[in-house]
Amino acid sequence: MTYDCKRLFIGRPEMTVLHLSDPHLFADDQGSLLGVNTQESFCAVLDDIRAKGIEPDVVIVTGDISQDYSKASYQFFAEQMAKLGKPVFTLAGNHDEVEHLSGCLSKPPLFNHKQILTEHWQILMVSSHLEGEVHGRISGSELAWLKGCLEDNSDLPTMLYMHHHPVPVGCDWLDEIGVRNKGELLELVTQHPQVKLCGFGHVHQFSEHKIDHALYCSVPSTCVQFKRHSSDFAASSETPGYAVYQCHADGSFDKHNYRVDHYLPKVNFAISGY
Length: 274
Ligand SMILES: [Fe+2]
What we know:
This protein has a single domain (12-259), classed as Metallo-dependent phosphatases (Purple Acid Phosphatase, chain A, domain 2, 4-Layer Sandwich). It is 22% helix and 25% strand. The protein is built from six helices and 17 strands. It binds fe (ii) ion (FE2). Fe (ii) ion is lined by residues 22, 24, 64, 93, 202, 204, 221.
């Protein structure tokens, strides 16, 4: 299988990557997840990015874009993201309708390329989506593609992005539903020292885990968060968040985590699942 490669000209040694995840949008503007209006919280996140003056070169959204699988939810996402005026790359989470996602999110400035090459970096969008399942898996063909990209560009510092978590985040209920064959991915990353970062969503919280040369890190959802260090399902009253990676030409990067402090999500704690 071959995939289109997107080449981005950044024009300076620094590159700023904005990482968002898990908007869980509905077609209905009153749609809510665990009490949180997801369109409203998503727009609050985008407003916060603009208010902070963050100017990304690339935006990565690691799945669970829709909660109701509707075409309209993807169209709403596309309209809002297009206002940023930056290239946006997405991949599917367990809540996504793959056909609608690829159909609605492939018109510039939204792209569904799996490989992005800049002058100094390679970004790879790795699918962990498993149709009909909540947990993730990286298929044999996906691993083979990833290996090929890493071998072909061994001189380029690389960031991997996926939906599910390939490392435990310390919540038993979530760690059951991460990437099931994470050992295969971790082995591949270990063999390729140019992989500097593996970013993911799904866990609705910030996490960081360093293994050898690679930092594994998640971002919160743009809507409701899950309680950290909880063995069973539990929501959290934390505000939405996102991360910005400032990537340098020498392969190093600085990571900044942000919370949308002015937006207080109205979480319904009586709901015991999602
Ligand atoms: Fe999610």
